[in-house]
Design brief:
About 3% of the residues have low confidence. The chain has seven helices and no strands. The protein has 187 residues and is mainly α. 75% of the residues lie in helices and 0% in strands. The chain is elongated. Helix 2 packs antiparallel against helix 3 and helix 2 runs parallel beside helix 4. The longest helix has 33 residues.
Length: 187
């Protein structure tokens, strides 16, 4: 009797496991059915893209695949299961199968383009910092503070007056050197 009960318990546990699996399949089907349905053309395109990606990225066919390529493969498998044609299109383009003219075609090219763009961003940010510390942007503080602006204007007026005096002195010296000093003319 004990053996029979143990056998029944094992069979019941196996039945529960299979039931959970079937429930998961039903839940997945319900989740897919709540999404949009693919047209026949989209369905065919999804299958074609999936086959092409599998041929390129499947671990059994591509033993030297990088971690990024393996991640793309897994995303392609999930996108195919879910009927997610948009994700499949992106993966298709990234793997270089789409044949777009200026699009990078491989993960390596994408990584190189990312590095190039990051370097360009750093250069632009450095240029912006240089501009922020040069004329006229370095005078922004005077726009924000009225007291500082008046002080700066007063200093500039003093400087203008000093420069004008220096110009007048230089003109006098030039006239002396040329003999045209304020001496009365002899007729």
């Amino acid at each position: 009797m004990i053996d029979i009960e143990e056998l029944l318990e094992k069979e019941f546990q196996e039945y529960k496991r299979k039931l959970r699996e079937r429930l998961k399949e039903v839940d997945d089907a319900l989740a897919r059915s709540e999404g949009k349905f693919l047209s026949d053309d989209d369905s065919k395109a999804l299958k074609d893209m999936y086959r092409t990606i599998v041929k390129k990225l499947h671990p059994d066919l591509n033993s030297h695949a990088s971690k990024e390529e393996m991640d793309l493969f897994m995303k392609a498998v999930n996108a195919y299961k879910l009927g997610d044609i948009e994700t499949m299109k992106l993966i298709f383009e990234v793997t270089g199968e789409a044949g777009e003219g200026d699009m990078p075609k491989t993960v390596l090219e994408l990584a190189e383009e990312k590095s190039r763009l990051q370097a360009l961003i750093m250069k632009v940010e450095l240029d912006m910092e240089g501009i922020k510390h040069s004329f006229p942007y370095n005078l922004k503080v005077y726009l924000d503070d009225e007291k500082l602006k008046r002080e700066r204007q007063a200093q500039l007026r003093k400087d203008i007056k000093l420069f004008q005096e220096a110009i007048d002195n230089i003109i006098d010296e030039i006239q002396k050197l040329m003999g045209k000093r304020d001496e009365p003319e002899i007729e």
